[in-house]
Structure formats: C-alpha cells, structure tokens
Amino acid sequence: MSETPQAGAVPAYQTPILEHFPSLFRNRNFLLLWGGYVVSALGDRIHFLVMLKLLEMLKQHRIGTQETAQLNVMMLAPFLVLGPFTGVIADRLPRRTVMITSDFARVIIVILARTLFLALPAALHQSVPWMPTISYAVLLLLISELILAAFSAFFSPARTALLPNLVHPDQLLRANALTNAAGTIASLVGFIVGAILVRWHLGIAMYIDAGTFLTSGILLLFMTRTARVVGRAIPRDQRSSIFGEFRQGLNYLLAHKRALQVVMLMFLFWCAGAIILSGLTGIVTKKFNMSVDYFGIFLGIVGIGMMVGAAAVSLSRHGIPKEFGIAWAMALVGLFLFLFSVPEHWPWALAFLVIGGFFSAILMVSLDTLLQRIVPDFIRGRVMAIRDMVANVGLVGVAVPLAISTNIDDYILFVLRVLAIGIVGVGLWLVSFYYRRQSLPTPASIMLRFVRGYLSLVKHLEAGTAARIPTSGPTILVANHTTAYDPLVMQVTSKYRLIQFMMAKEYYEKKPFLYLYKAFGVIPVNRTGNDTASFRTALRVLKDGGCIGMYPEGKISDDGRMDEGRPGVALLALMSGATVVPAYIAGTNVHAGMVKDFLIRSKVTIYFGRPLRFDDLKILDRDAGREIATKRIMDAIIALRDRYETNPERRMSTSEARAREGGAGAGIIPAAIS
Q1: Number of C-alpha atoms within 13 angstroms, CB side, residue 665?
Q2: 579-586: strand order across its sheet
Q3: The whole model's pTM is what?
Q4: Residue 477 parent element (H or E)
Q5: What tens digit of pLDDT does each residue of 336-372 get?
C-alpha cells in the first residue's frame, strides 16, 4: 500500500520551493551531518594507513606503488560494482538510515579485522597457489577491505543526495565548501595522527579507527526526523526493479548535457587522483628514499592546501564564478601536478603538490555544488551513485594497471605528466568556452573577475537594483564621485554591458591602472580646456548603441559631499538621445589618493535609480534643455543619497555644508538639514 502524506505536508519525493532554513551554523541537521562526515573522514585516513602498515608487515618488505594500488582497487571497486544498487537504495530508503547502517557495519568489520590480523596463524602466511606473489593473509586483508568499502559505497550517495535537502539553495556552495574544508582538516589530522599511531601501536590505531565510525553513526542518530532529513525520494507505488530505476538515473544523466559534462570532468580529475593516491607511495619511498610512513605525512600536508582552498570558497559571499571554480581551477590543477613531477628535491615537489591541492578543492566543491543544484531530488541519489561509479572508473582504471605492473615506479612520473598536460588542455578549453559565452569582451571579462573578487573581499561591495541598467541602446551611467575606483565599482555591477568611462587625463595616465583603463575603453578628457575630441568620441560611442560612464560633478569630491552638476552629461544625453541611469555610491572613504583609496578596507554599496529620458526637452533650445536635464540628473542622484546614505556628513551638498559653517561662524544657529 502506498504511503499517503498528511494534509498540508510536503511529500518526501518533492522538494519544496520555499521553506525556512536557519543559517548554516544554527542548522542542527546540517551540523550533525557535517560532524558525522568529518569524523568518518578522520577514520578513513587512519584506516588507510593501518591497512598500509598491515600490508608492509605481511609482505615483510618496504611497499611501493604496486601494493598501494592493490589496496586502492579493493577500496574503490565496490563503488563501481555496486553503483546500480547504492543509488537506488539512496532514493528508495531513508538516506539518514542508510548512512547510520553503513557506519555501524563498518564498526563491526574493523573490530573483527583487528582481532583477526593481529593473531594470524602461521599457515596463512603461505602464498596463494594461483597468485604466488600474494599470501593468504594478504588476500584476507584485501577481502576485508573490499567488504568495508562496500558499506562506504552506500554511505556516499546517500550523504551527497541528502545535503541539498538540509540547506537553502543559496547556502549549498558554502555548505559544500565547509564540509570539504572540515573533511580535509580531518584528513590532515587523520594522516598525521594515523602515521603516529601505526608507528606506536597498531592495535590501538585499529580500535580508534572503529571508534570514529561509531561516533559518526551516533551523530547521525541525533538528526531531527523530518521528511527532508529522512529523504525517501521514491514512493512505493512508483518503484520498479532495481535495474529499471538505475536506468532511469542513467537516462536522466545522458539526456542532460550539463550534468553529464560535470560527471565527465570529475572522471578526468579522479584519473589524476588515482595516480597521486597510488603512485605517491612509490615516489616517496623510491624517488625521495623515505619510509612509507612519510606517505601519510605528505598527504596530510597536501591537505593543508585543500583545506585553504575549500575555506576560500566558503568565505566567498557571492559564490565562485564557474569559469574560475571549474575552468581555471582545472587548468591550474593540471599545471601544478606537472610541476610536482619535475623537482628532484622533495620540498619543492611537496610545495607544488600543496598548491595543486588548493585548486583541486575549489574544483571539486564547484563541481559537486553544480551537480547538486541541477539534479532534482527525486533522482539525485541515483545520479550521485553514477557519479561515484564514473569517478571510480577513473580511479580503478588507473589503479589496476599500476597494481599489476612490477616496475611501475620506473615510469609513474611520465604517466603523471601526460595526464597533467591533458588536464591543462581541458581546463584551457573550458576557459575559452566560458568566456565565449560572456556578454563582455574576453579581456574585460577576465579582468573584471579579478576586480570583482578584490572589491568583494576588501570593499565588501554590494549592488542594489543593478537590473535597471538597460541591456541595449545608448546609455549614460552617472554617479557621485568620491574615489578613484568608482569606475570599477560601477563596471563590476554591470554584468552585461561594457561601460566606457570618461576620465580626467591626469588620472587616466597613472600606472598601473593605465592598462586596466585601456582594456575597458576609457575615454581620457583634457580638463585644461575645451576638449571637443573626447566629447565627439563619447558621442560616437552612444550613436553606436554603447554605454558611457560619467560623473556630472566633474571631479572627485575632497570631503565625500556632492557638489553642483556640470552641463556636459546633459548635453551629451540630449545630442545622442541616450537613456541616463543615476547611481549613488555609499560607504567610500574620503579621498586620500588613488592607491590608498583602493587599499583601505570598507563596505561599499552602489544604488541605481530609475532611468531618465529627456525626449520632452527636445522642443526647447539647447541652453534651456541642458539646464533642466542637468537639474533632473542631479536631483535623481541626490534622491538616492537621501534615501540610502547613512553618514550624516554626506547627507548634504558641499554648498549646504559651506552655508552651515558660515552661519555658525556668524553666531547663527543653522536650521536642521534633512
């Protein structure tokens, strides 16, 4: 019998469009899921080093790439083989229950493995007849790892499919970044602590490993039981066979090009990840002549780069642009993987790998978030399982040849270099693809990304009503002028139009901003006389349907207050028939020089007003029309100032301030200025 939801309730297989979500750090369910993942990641790293140490003990020689690859194949194969089942289970059953069951099962397996492998009978150390290079003990070890990984394969898609149900869509990127950063910290701690534990006491290390999975399961038990937390996506009356439902997920992925592209990019990334996870052991022990324990320390230090990368994403208030979070990040990951393979001294190699880890964290957070956003809840578990399968095709596909090759350490660096070059190529192709789709010219788009990031970080820049900028036709943007970086503030808020500013020549020629101004087509103005050439240039741009940025006060304000407007903007608008969009920039520092203005931290907000047209002034003579248009423009900017400015000293014009000061000097009490 199918389950009937209560009246007014949202069925578990539907995702509500509107629902109240607390902030991430007050969201109990997110914090418990986050905590469970972090503790589980800690246990995974300790467990991996325990398995490496057991392999070394059982084989009785220093292990390298081949042994690590064998262990990785056992860890990754369940994700590949069980993918059709894990995704369907994540969509059929309560996702929280799936994760809890997986954690407790892993506790039992680790404890049993501890009891078995620390008291092996001598007979199990004999070689397996059909695999003379592997003993029965090693075979049992690999089988136990296979069983443990099978439960991890059920845990992963359930977790990634459940997360979007717990947070607001606008919080998803930050939630993934925080999860990734914390998981990386756990990995860092796990590798370092695991390396210390296995050197001190292997048995205690295995018990601590089991304790981490137990803690993760207990945390998940305390999650609030709601429809969104339980996460049952497929009602009973809509279920088919396991493989039928898996095919639905596969067909969805094949039919949605964007989601398929994300999964294939993950596949390429994890191909490189397989070489690092498997080949780093041989590089550490053979190329740099260190013991296998340093493998964990290497990965732990690399985790610092990944942690910083994920933290950088979490601190981004407006998200990471796709061309940086995916395209540039992928190209840089490939570049630093290649550089890692070059040095003969380990400190340089490790430094390049850490930087590569920084960009890899940005890449994976961006890809995960994009996939979670575009895939609907009812099929998300199956798509995430297919994602795990495809990623593990890359991991296992690379690890298997490494596992069976006896001299892989001799050419592992060559393989890494070839794959790194391929990743750089794909990244650069994506960069070209993204920028070809931008409305602005490519050089301007690239520069604006860096400028927007800087202003967002240092100036905490926010924009209001930027949609009032017309997307086509001759347009003049006007604003108050208090700092040298005002043009950048206006340009980064105009995502679809390039603004060609008219700027005083003495500011235009100052380096290093000269190159930036040229890229944005800034029109220099000679303020020493009647500069008709710049006026004609601006008029030509508007006649061609362009967008001009101007400051009707004609200069940068020395005290932040607004002065009287000059007629140049009005004349240009009347002659070109352009639409004028007023704006007010609040929160800037009092003018203190071009460079200093740009470096001082502050909170800057730009507000746009209703666009102005002057068609009714065409019947007037030029002087009268220019005077009326100038007044309308300045009144519009002043109205924005009076509405949004919070600094009382700037809620008056320069002339009003002079009048107040003059009146006070004569002993007259000035009237209050609103």
Answers
A1: 6
A2: 462-464, 605-608, 579-586, 475-479, 547-550, 499-504, 523-525
A3: 0.63
A4: strand 475-479
A5: 989 988 888 888 888 998 899 899 888 888 888 888 8
